[in-house]
Amino acid sequence: MDVLAVDHPLAKARLTVMRDARTDNATFRAALHELTDMLIYEAMRDAPVRRERIHTPVARTEGYWLANPPLLVPVLRAGLGMADHAHKLIPDAQMGFVGLARDEQTLKPVPYMESLPESLADRPVLVLDPMLATGGSMEHTIRLLIDRGATDVTAVCALAAPEGIERLDKSGLPVRLVTGSVDERLNESGFIVPGLGDAGDRQYGAV
Ligand SMILES: O=P(O)(O)OC[C@H]1O[C@H](OP(=O)(O)OP(=O)(O)O)[C@H](O)[C@@H]1O
Ligand SMILES: O=c1cc[nH]c(=O)[nH]1
Ligand SMILES: [Mg+2]
């Protein structure tokens, strides 16, 4: 699997704010918004463009548009914190939604919501979820997309654990990963170490 870790000082600084246990909910959300801009920017680097001749006030030149804007799919709750900023960078993207809550005993994703276009054939998809831990939630989401014909899926995450990356890799699913960091490991509770805690709770409060 193709993995891009966005190794950039500005991304590292936003991640430091998010990792710090003293950071309050509002400041955490703001740092995630800014990190999302950087991750999406990198995720879209090689997106095909459509060219168009345009006129500046001075001369004719070539203009560029995204040839095939992606579908954005935030995974609720935590992925909601990436949705609006991804959408600002790609205003002509459509958005679908997947709601999953990981059962903290079994570590399996429990689906509670799904709102996706029926066909995703020929449509790139960016899945937005700050955390790739065991990879169960991401694998579930990617399978929903593939069932609808998607063949070009990018997982965009703030943090990824090696265990989750290995799981996606072994699944053979057509996915690449863009992440702010590959962390050390999972702990015995399935949390990323050093990580940042529960990304949903850090943004919205504990449920
Ligand atoms: O890789 P996994 O082991 O599946 O864990 C990652 C999932 O856990 C978090 O969501 P959570 O289930 O806590 O839901 P929330 O966003 O509502 O907090 C996170 O946002 C991922 O969706
Ligand atoms: O560290 C983790 C693992 C799963 N989900 C989170 O929000 N954080
Ligand atoms: Mg959570």
Automatic annotation (TrEMBL):
- List of residues binding 5-phospho-alpha-D-ribose 1-diphosphate: 77, 102, 129-137, 198
Per UniProt, residues of the Phosphoribosyltransferase domain are 6-205
The pathway it acts in is: Pyrimidine metabolism; UMP biosynthesis via salvage pathway; UMP from uracil: step 1/1
Instruction: Kindly indicate whether the keyword Cell wall biogenesis/degradation belongs to this entry.
Output: no
Reaction(s) this enzyme catalyzes, per UniProt: UMP + diphosphate = 5-phospho-alpha-D-ribose 1-diphosphate + uracil
UniProt cross-references to InterPro entries, sorted A to Z: PRTase-like (IPR029057), PRTase_dom (IPR000836), Upp_B (IPR034332), UPRT (IPR005765), UPRTase/APRTase (IPR050054)
Q: What is this protein called?
A: Uracil phosphoribosyltransferase
Organism, per UniProt?
Herbihabitans rhizosphaerae
Q: Please name the gene that encodes this protein.
A: upp
